[in-house]
UniProtKB/TrEMBL annotation:
Predominant place of localization: membrane
Protein family per UniProt: Belongs to the G-protein coupled receptor 1 family.
Membrane-spanning parts: 25-50, 62-84, 104-122, 143-165, 199-223, 244-267, 273-293
One Pfam family hit: 7tm_4
PROSITE patterns referenced in this protein's UniProt entry, alphabetically: G_PROTEIN_RECEP_F1_1, G_PROTEIN_RECEP_F1_2
Protein name: Olfactory receptor
Record-annotated G-protein coupled receptors family 1 profile domain positions: 43-294
Compartmental location: Cell membrane; Membrane
CDD domains xref list: 7tmA_OR51-like
Keywords: Cell membrane, G-protein coupled receptor, Membrane, Olfaction, Receptor, Sensory transduction, Transducer, Transmembrane, Transmembrane helix
Membrane topology: Multi-pass membrane protein
């Protein structure tokens, strides 16, 4: 009887849709997705390899950059097991528990990226405000502890999510709106009160994205104040130039999140494909653009790429 109830209230599988109404074009849609995955994995893997091979880059800034690249690889690899089989092979079914696991990893890596960007803003502040104490203030053990704190915070915040979803009876449908599993999408299928899920989800978003973005803004206010205290105009320009890559990475991450939030709040009448496209931008664009941004704007990374492929 217990197994019968479990089967009735929790489907054995979820049905992924990708782009509703465009199923006949999925073979063509697979091409840009394959290119996105290839470019993201190649770009972030190259950053990691360059920093590992060149001991001159064993500095705090590049260690934090490696954390960002590792996290971006995690984002790409967490969506890949369902996205490519769906578009390339037409495999739409994903097991219930596998969907919960994918949901956990996708949201965890997203929250970790926010924490890493906050740590990188602190790194830039120390480098500009206390350049002579930079290496002694951000030692390798201290950087490792910061990275561990980011991982523990994100996983601890996300740990209840699978259990909050698993307690819900899923009886309306088993069809998800995307090519991967997300918490809001799975909650939508529940035929029970989801207040706890909504409240806790809002709390987690506020504690992560909200606080992290506020502290990033505070860091840059302090950075700007420190830069204005530099007497030399050329030194001020050089100090600000070291922040350009990080500012671009922050905008690349937070602008799609804000756009998705605004769309969910005010774009109820927008076509479903618009919501799907914005969710894809939020997940796929930062891992693609971050290595490009740092390769273009960071001279040492650019030189490392030339040495590696030249």
């Amino acid at each position: 009887m217990a197994e019968a109830n479990l089967t009735r209230f929790q489907p054995a599988t979820f049905h992924l849709t990708g782009f509703p109404g465009l199923e006949h074009l999925h073979a063509w849609i697979a091409v840009p997705f394959c290119a996105l995955y290839f470019a993201s994995i190649l770009g972030n893997g190259t950053i990691l390899l360059i920093v590992r091979r060149d001991r001159r880059l064993h500095e705090p800034m590049y260690f934090f950059l490696c954390m960002l690249s590792l996290n971006d690889l995690g984002v790409s690899l967490s969506t890949l097991p369902t996205v490519l089989p769906l578009f390339c092979l037409g495999l739409r079914e994903v097991a219930f528990d596998a969907c919960l696991a994918q949901m956990f990893f996708i949201h965890s890596f997203s929250f970790m990226e926010s924490g890493i960007l906050l740590a990188m803003s602190f790194d830039r502040f120390v480098a500009i405000r206390h350049p002579l104490r930079y290496s002694s203030a951000l030692t390798s053990p201290r950087i490792a502890r910061i990275g561990l704190a980011v991982v523990l915070k994100s996983t601890a915040m996300l740990f209840p999510f699978p259990f909050l979803v698993k307690r819900l009876p899923i009886c309306r449908s088993n069809v998800l709106s995307h090519a991967y599993c997300l918490h809001p999408d799975m909650m939508r299928l529940a035929c029970a009160d989801i207040t706890v899920n909504n409240v806790y989800g809002f709390f987690v978003v506020l504690v992560t994205y909200g606080l992290d973005s506020a502290f990033i803004l505070l860091s840059y206010a302090m950075i700007l104040r420190a830069v204005l205290n530099i007497a030399s105009r050329e030194q001020r320009r050089k100090a600000l130039n070291t922040c350009v890559s990080h500012i671009c990475a922050v905008l690349t991450f937070y602008v799609p999140i804000i756009a998705v939030s605004v769309l969910h709040r005010f774009g109820k009448g927008a076509p479903p494909v618009v919501h799907i496209m914005m969710s894809n931008v939020y997940l796929f664009v930062p891992p693609l653009l971050n290595p490009i941004i740092y390769s273009v704007k960071t001279k040492e990374i650019r030189k490392g790429i030339v040495r590696m492929f030249g």
